[in-house]
Amino acid sequence: MNNLTNFDFQQFAKGTITKEALGGFRRGATWILPQLQAWFGSTIQLRRQANGLFSATQLIEDNQELARSGKLLYEGLSVPVEVLVGMIRVMTHYPRGDLLNATSQKQTSESGLRYAANVPLVLSAFKEYRNIPYSDWDWADPMMKHILDSGTAELIPYILDPKPLQAWTKEQLLDIRDLANTKEVALTSLYTITYGNDAEFKRLPRLLKLMLCQTWVYHPSIRHHLGLCSVETLDKHPEPLVSSDIPEVETSPWITGSKSSTATKGKRAWGTPTTSDIPWDI
After folding, report:
1. Second label for 8, Cα 20 to 30 Å away, from 130, 160, 199, 267?
2. Residues 186 and 94 both lie in one domain
3. Three-class SS of residue 71?
4. Contacts of 264 (CB under 8 A, 6+ apart)
């Protein structure tokens, strides 16, 4: 069965991430992403700071040192710095659709929502495997943007000060949503909002507009529990703009287990101590 040593994360460590490299990741995304999230969330060292929050700066500095000293391990094997950097860079790549298997991991599908654009992959690994809320991170840390994809990083100013967003009422957001949906597609398919006469709203980051209007992966009927769906209450989803957006679901008496994935045993791409050293360049 494949494990993380079968994938060459070094290719993501420096420079521009090529389409060929992204294509290789995408072909294995169904097994790479779950394993990467599990290892990262359960292994990477974190420490609360004096202010009680977790720090991106500490995460980077401490784990860089562990990797360089050969003490950061994956299944008993030392994880070289360039592998760790490659892992972080791929998890912070934007747009997310470049990473997901287009056939089986469409972002609005059941299997794709866990890794959709509203889920910060690095932070969600800690939330899932160590129960660390998004609100326990120091969003004012200047290094925070380096452990987030660029779409989520654009939300930081509004997370630190969401008051400007109170300018739009629920009714106004619904009007903007209706105006944007000129083709009358399903709201879960409305992944961009560019129409409207509100110049201030147009200037907001793309994901923030979708978040406020509750469309695409932010729609209440499909949003993932690890999704960051509000800049005001990071760990609590906002009330739906329209109550009927959440369908009633009958509880089934049947319990189904998830199918175990089968993968072909692959050649190890890394897993021995490295003699080279690269700058921490995320």
Report:
1. 130
2. no
3. coil
4. 2
From 40, 126, 114, select the one nearest 83 (Cα to Cα): 40
Residues 192 and 122 occupy one common structural domain: no
State how far the Cα of 1 lies from the Cα of 159, in Å rounded to an integer.
Answer: 41
Distance, CA of 5 to CA of 2 (rounded, Å): 8
Q: What is the pLDDT of residues 116-136, one digit of tens each?
A: 999 999 999 999 999 999 999
Given a cut of 60, is residue 249 above it in pLDDT?
Answer: no
The pLDDT tens digits for 1-14 are: 799 999 999 999 99
> Do 17 and 107 belong together in one domain?
yes
- Domain assignment of residue 243, given as a range: 154-247
- In whole angstroms, give the CA distance from residue 187 to residue 220: 10
Interatomic CA distance for residues 202 and 194, integer angstroms:
7
- Whether residues 168 and 222 share a domain: the answer is yes
* CA–CA gap between residue 209 and residue 229 (Å, rounded): 11
In a domain, 261, yes or no: no
Q: Supply the Cα-derived Rg of the chain in whole angstroms.
A: 20
Q: What is the pLDDT of residues 23-53, one digit of tens each?
A: 999 999 999 999 999 999 999 999 999 999 9
Question: Is the separation of the CB atoms in 205 and 151 below 8 Å?
Answer: yes
| pLDDT band, very low/low/confident/very high, at 230 (cuts 50, 70, 90) | very high
Residues 23 and 142 in one domain: yes
From residue 36, alpha-carbon distances to 6, 19, 139, 171, 269 in Å are 12, 20, 23, 41, 15
Domain count, the chain: 2
Write 219-222 long-range contacts (CB < 8 A, 24+): 219/187, 219/188, 219/245, 220/245, 220/246, 221/188, 221/245, 221/246, 221/247, 222/108, 222/113, 222/188
Domain check: are 121 and 1 in the same one?
A: yes
User: pLDDT of 182-210, one tens digit each?
Assistant: 899 999 999 999 877 889 999 999 999 99
Residue 274 has pLDDT above 80, yes or no: no
